[in-house]
């Protein structure tokens, strides 16, 4: 089984290829949308490339769940993710740093959960199972 560093190297290479980036633009903390400029169509390409690179099947919505809070008034109130919403995020994204997001749980910051390190964490768990 590959180490976290080996997984990171392959994920970084995948991001460079999929998004047309320079090597130095990809860091573990880089957010896919905000820092790396990924768009929704890129997420499909990234999943495809990761499946091929790591020889795994990534079910739709498992790595990049859609509608995380889906406008549910119990999960979001006045543009802020509630404690129940944070619990839902932890459940749907067990490989993301939800605690860091919880420091400023604005709905518009949800995209910050999708980082290069989140993908590494996901693949590390996936490859171990």
UniProtKB/TrEMBL annotation:
Gene3D superfamilies: ACP-like. One of its GO terms (cellular component) is cytosol. InterPro entries: ACP, ACP-like_sf, PP-bd_ACP, Ppantetheine_attach_site. Keywords: Fatty acid biosynthesis, Fatty acid metabolism, Lipid biosynthesis, Lipid metabolism, Phosphopantetheine, Phosphoprotein. Pfam families: PP-binding (PF00550). Transmembrane segments: none annotated. This is Acyl carrier protein. It comes from Symmachiella dynata. The lineage of its organism: Bacteria, Pseudomonadati, Planctomycetota, Planctomycetia, Planctomycetales.
């Amino acid at each position: 089984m590959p180490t976290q560093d080996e997984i990171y190297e392959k994920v970084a290479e995948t991001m460079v290829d999929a998004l047309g980036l320079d090597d130095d633009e990809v860091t573990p903390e880089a957010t896919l949308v905000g820092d790396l400029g990924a768009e929704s169509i890129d997420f499909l390409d990234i999943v495809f490339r990761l499946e091929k690179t790591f020889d795994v099947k990534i079910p739709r919505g498992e790595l990049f769940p859609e509608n995380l809070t889906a406008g549910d008034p119990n999960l979001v109130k006045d543009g802020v993710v509630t404690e129940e919403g944070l619990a839902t995020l932890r459940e749907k994204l067990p490989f993301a740093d939800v605690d860091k997001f919880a420091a400023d749980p604005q709905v518009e910051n949800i995209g910050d959960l999708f980082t290069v390190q989140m993908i590494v964490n996901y693949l590390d768990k996936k490859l171990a199972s």
